[in-house]
Design goal:
Elements (H helix, E strand, L loop, with lengths): L15 H35 L11 H14 L1
Amino acid sequence: MLFGGKTLESINITSPLQLIISVFIIFFIQSWLVQWSYNTIFPLLIYNTTGYNNNNFKPLTYTESIIVVILFTNLF
């Protein structure tokens, strides 16, 4: 099963290179989504829980978001 219940037989991949490129594209999209969501949501969560703006908030870089995606992919 792959990506939500599809079997490998039902996916028409003509070459292994297509599969590798598809996996990397999905990986980089996930990394971008982690970076965007963290930088957007976390300052709001800090404000809602503590009641003040945190001027020391350090946004997540793209490299750090790649590491987070690798971490959670290997943990779960």
